[in-house]
Request: fold
Amino acid sequence: MKNTINSVIAFILFSTILSSSWAESINDRDPYKHFFNETWGDMPEEIQKAKDSKKKGIVVFFEMDECPFCHYMKKNVLNKPKVQEFYRKHFLNISVDIEGDVEMVNFKGKTVKLKDFAFKEHRVRATPVIAFFDLNGKRIYRHTGKTSGVDEFMWLGEFIVKGLYKKSSFSRYKRTKRAEKKK
Reply:
């Protein structure tokens, strides 16, 4: 009986000590299964799919294997269920390896290598680059580098979904959101 009580007390103490971030990590999900959409690399087809699904546009996550900031985004941001649900609701999300030799069809219908799509067409030199495209294949916003975390990445998505990129800067939007969060 005494061992059972001690076990219960130990369990309660252990449960209390657990941080919310640790508890959240239990629910983390693979971004390649739950954030990124499957793609055959045909951007005109992806645009049509986005239109048919009533999405706001396409997000292209330009990355490379050795990039620590890309790994940070996948391990700490893109793996969160609330991020995955929001972005999947509003966008088709595609990963592009900026060093890839695999061929794809760009937004203009031309066959190019992934690395040429990244570097020659979108001037991606550092990663990650998170590029938002409208339903005509026009890039409407580009964010270079990792975000500070989940909040900033969610704000980036909201900034695009609400159309605020048309009249304001993301920096201004972030300042407003941070001020609201402090209240």
User: Anything to note?
Assistant: The CA atoms of residues 99 and 115 lie 5 Å apart. The chain is about 50% helix and 15% strand.
